[in-house]
């Protein structure tokens, strides 16, 4: 499995997360979006409700009454009660090598203008390269995502 690293240079986290969520849910999949702060996840929650007038992305937050049936679940925890096979790590949430095989797709989305976030992503890249998984680095180029590097 490929572990995807997305460096945000111009696109917002909200836009990138929304695109991932739309595509995954559109294919019948479920997504867990793991962050590090409830306040930031609350902002993403609000964004998913209002990002477009003509679209709806069913979602909820961990701890809600119906978390297990949500196609998109926002959480700070490592347990994934909605059974998602796609994991998005945002706002400094770190990879846990032991859980990689629990997912079909993992993407770490980080702010390329934040030195600490970039250093953490590099450390996680090195972790992935020590596993049987392939690390794939994506960066923005004229508003499009372009694969820039691949391990192994």
TrEMBL record:
Domain of life: Bacteria
SUPFAM superfamilies referenced in this protein's UniProt entry, alphabetically: DNA polymerase III chi subunit
GO biological process, one term: positive regulation of DNA-templated DNA replication initiation
One Pfam family of this chain: DNA_pol3_chi
InterPro entries: DNA_pol3_chi (IPR007459), PolIII_chi_sf (IPR036768)
Coiled coil: none
GO molecular function terms noted in the UniProt entry: DNA binding; DNA-directed DNA polymerase activity
Name the record gives this protein: DNA polymerase III, chi subunit
The species this protein was found in: Pontivivens marinum
